[in-house]
Amino acid sequence: MSQPETWAEGQQLPAQTYRVTRADLVRYAGASGDFNPIHWSDRIARSVGLPGVIAHGMYTMALAGRALTTWTGRPDAVIEYGVRFTKPVVVPDDDTGAEVVVAGVVRSVVDGEAQVELTVTSGGEKVLAQARARLRVGTNPAS
Amino acid sequence: MALDPSYVGRTYPPTPPYRVGREKIREFAEAIGAADAAYTDPDAASALGYPDVVAPPTFPIVISLAAGRAVIDDPALGIDYARVVHGDQRFVYTRPIVAGDELTCVCTVEEIMSRGGHDFLTTRVDVSDASGAPVVSVWTRLVVRGDA
Question: How far is A73 from chain B (nearest CA, A)?
Answer without folding.
Answer: 9
